[in-house]
Prior knowledge:
Blueprint: H1 2-12, E1 19-23, H2 28-39, E2 43-48, E3 64-68, E4 85-88, H3 98-117, E5 122-128, H4 150-169, E6 172-178, E7 181-182, H5 191-201, E8 205-206, E9 214-216, E10 218-219, H6 220-232, E11 238-242, E12 247-249, H7 250-261, E13 267-268, H8 283-289, H9 297-305
Parallel strand pairs: 1-2, 1-4, 2-3, 4-5, 5-6, 6-11, 7-10, 8-13
Antiparallel strand pairs: 9-12
Amino acid sequence: MILLKQYCMCMCKNALMKTAVLTGATGFVGFALLNELIKNDVHVYVLCRPNSKRLSRLDGFTGITIIETDLEYADKINDIQECDVFFHLAWEGERNNFEQQYKNINISLSCLKLAANLKCRKFICTGSQAEYGDKTELITENTALMPTTAYGTCKVAAYYLIADLARRLNIEHIWVRIFSVYGPNDNPQTLISSLVKSLKETEHAALTTNGNHIWNYLYEEDAARALFMLGRSSSAYGVYNLAGKECKPLKYFVEEAKQIIAPNVDILYGNEQSTINLNVSTEKLLLAIGDFEKTTFSGGIRAIID
């Protein structure tokens, strides 16, 4: 009861958000966030790379202004006067290509400078569970950062540099470490996307691991809702883990998907024990914005099928 009261109190501390800048709008989570912002009558300035191959995803959208620009020089943009919140989700490069990953740090700092120029009250940047590295214990925002990839390492570097520059520029900064998000618009190579495809088309599915490691899934619309609520909140600040409520063995989620799509199929599990566990706490985020998760895992699977 006390926890519920805290949720309600935090959710009342909201500020108006009429305009927002968004990078990464053609990506998975960014596209979901774009839809969430538009649904809530926020005019969105979408920053995209010139001649982006995925720019056609934005065709037909109203309530947005598309600005094609090299994000490395984002702080030189003068097409926007002022804005309420800046959401920086753009990040590219192969996971273990350090040179490609490193470029994202300068881009992130340039976007932060633009946010300050636009007098944004808040700069929200997305990090990743990869910053924590391989963990078996419960992951909180205070868990030690021990990345094992160039991607995770550069995310950590960006976090510290952005936090420092944000203090110098006197702009509020929120860093959101995203865990495993899924949904209809997800990359077809992810486990859930490939699992659904295999069960629907071949009625066969196999995993390389035994599925006993702890996992967590959050539906794309719920992830977008949480980011929107953080942007609207007048009290949220600092680092937040963004994940679902349920942390269970991966096998649990796989079997639940199987029951919906092809209940008579046997899943073939491997012998490998994964070193990655997404045993994550979202208590801090829930206290900051209240309940944001509206979609059950089974509901999300049905949405993918539909």
